[in-house]
Q: What sequence folds into this?
């Protein structure tokens, strides 16, 4: 499986935008980029996913580099409730029934009031 | 609201005991998963299931077995618990895989198992 690299931790001030980077230099053409986050004492939750184009939803935006070797999860206005561990995951679509998610250790985001 | 529930939030067992961890989802999902989470190691997949009575080994199946007799329920079994199985166990479910869709996994709150 192609691997991702994320910083271990980041800090951001409340109500400011946060950019969480992810490197995936060995990504293949059929790999989707998924982001999940895990709030304290909870299971992970889906945030967003994309293939080539930038994506937006109610939670966040995903900016994907033109060569797809990196991506950035953008929280437009961080709140204290966004403090969590954020996981960047590559998910192949090349095999039917490929359901596995391989979680790394993610980025622990701390929001400063 | 979609929901994955796990039978216990906290569980304490003794070495050698047989342990059952239960997971139930109410979303009619085909796929269900069991992960364990340990500090510094992230989440690791133990077993998953595509359908009733079907199971597939994940990355760390040793010491575990699973059962899926009904679509909504997926059980993780520790035949003879050991101290190195002390961990947070997370269950998840998702719809049948379709390329291009999110196929997001919905996770339960986790069971923190301590084996003494």
A:
């Amino acid at each position: 499986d192609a691997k991702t690299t994320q910083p271990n931790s980041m800090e951001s001030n409340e109500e400011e935008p946060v950019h969480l980077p992810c490197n995936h230099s060995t990504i293949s053409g059929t790999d989707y980029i998924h982001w999940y986050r895990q709030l304290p004492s909870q299971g992970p939750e889906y945030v967003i996913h994309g293939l080539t184009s930038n994506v937006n939803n109610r939670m966040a935006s995903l900016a994907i580099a033109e060569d797809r070797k990196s991506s950035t999860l953008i929280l437009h206005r961080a709140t204290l409730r966004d403090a969590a561990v954020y996981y960047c995951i590559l998910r192949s679509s090349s095999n039917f029934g490929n359901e596995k998610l391989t979680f790394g250790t993610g980025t622990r985001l701390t929001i400063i009031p | 609201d979609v929901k994955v529930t796990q039978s216990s939030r906290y569980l304490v067992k003794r070495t050698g005991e047989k342990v059952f961890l239960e997971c139930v989802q109410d979303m009619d999902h085909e796929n269900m998963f069991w992960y364990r989470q340990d500090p510094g190691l992230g989440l690791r997949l133990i077993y998953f299931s595509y359908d009733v009575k079907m199971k597939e080994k994940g990355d760390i199946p040793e010491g575990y077995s699973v059962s899926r007799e009904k679509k909504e329920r997926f059980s993780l079994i520790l035949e003879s618990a050991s101290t190195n199985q002390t961990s947070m166990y997370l269950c998840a479910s998702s719809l049948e895989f379709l390329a291009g869709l999110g196929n997001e996994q919905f996770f339960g709150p986790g069971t923190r198992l301590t084996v003494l």
About this structure: The radius of gyration of chain B is 14 Å. Chain B touches chain A through 30 residues (CB under 8 Å). Residues 11 and 112 of chain B are 6 Å apart (CA to CA). The longest strand of chain B covers residues 31-38.
